[in-house]
Amino acid sequence: MPKTADEILKMIEDENIQIVDLKFIDMPGIWQHCSFYQDQIDADSFVNGVPFDGSSIRGWKAINESDMAMVPDPNTAWIDPFYKEKTLSMVCSIKEPRTGEWYSRDPRSIAQKALDYLSATGIGDAAFFGPEAEFFVFDDVRFDQTESQGYYYVDSVEGRWNSGREEAGGNLGYKPRYKEGYFPVSPTDTLQDMRTEMLLTMAECGVPIEKHHHEVATGGQNELGIRFAPIIAAADNLMTYKYVIKNVAKRYGKSATFMPKPLFNDNGSGMHTHLSIWKGGEPLFWGDGYANLSKTALNAIGGVLKHAPALLAFTNPTTNSYKRLVPGFEAPVNLAYSQGNRSASVRIPLSGSNPKAKRFEFRCPDATSNPYLAFAALLCAAVDGIKNEIDPGDPLDVDIYDLSPEELSKIPSTPGSLEDALENLQNDRTFLTDSGVFTDDFIDNWISYKLDTEVNPLRLRPHPYEFALYYDC
Q: What is the pLDDT of residues 445-456, one digit of tens each?
């Protein structure tokens, strides 16, 4: 695909593209878009942007200062595979038209500031991220919440709970057992063709692809593998990943969700995130320390572990996130690091002797996060660890899930709720704000938004399980 504004404009003319779709991300992490007739996009659009009303975007502008501008990035151009009319898609960052400055609450601009901050410190000039987002595919999804009722219902032909159900054509009985959905072949894995279409469609949209497979949980849990990329491109790719997966699933008459814990009593969906920092084209995390890590890498891990309770307000930003982060479901609830150990929140993959492959994996995040904010916050924590030479302590090379309660009590753990994570962010924010990557205004707005629209509304509503516990009191 073209990579410059001039090449994009030439492509629009040469290929007679009538519609240009501009996408941007809102504060919570959902793509928004507006489609323009081709003559509305010119050279100035790539500099000063295309105007739009920002007052209806969650967490952004008041109605009296609503005029904003979306600036398309030509590096993100691809032909949207889900529209009848040939449509060119581009991802945008947001500008303040009054000042010409990047908008301080625009997540994509915040990620760029995180990269600029890394360069300004002299530590490195590139940060690579590799997110691994898991998801469920359901055949039926229903939910409602009113004054007199509240329920959800999800179903999948692969659900183990359907092993005794009468099905059209007969129940064939191939249903993955709970926690045993990792890598079964067909006919137990019913989603092979759909995942292949998802993977190849992502490639058509410019996402560097690797693999796909069934995941651990019953009921249609999956993962597609994409290659690591620089921070902005990695977040752009993840948004395309989610977009393609949801729309291909819809083609199959199914529904895909990245909700961390849609099923009770089985594994949730995470987004294990790999990180490495480079300078001058050379990797900085290879060394002669533990697991062939450099001191820089160990200090980066120290920063992530120290700030993890606050980090989770961005990497695990929903109330449902903390239904996944509980012991017993392969969830990384212990703030420790280890080589090749998936029970630790920071894992050092066994990547061989190639210095360029050396990285660490933060296993806490999930895909309800806004990737631009999550990656920016994670990078800020790592840089803080490097700048201040934060010691991560000793590695924990044991199965943490098998430790006794007394041993576990000595290991820090993740917050138990979104409210706890937000409180940690309130009290531990200077690693984000001193650099200017995040502003106090943004963090205050984030905390307020999450409390007002998620934490407090959930607190007000009775839970269905409370009726099972207390109705006969």
A: 999 999 999 999
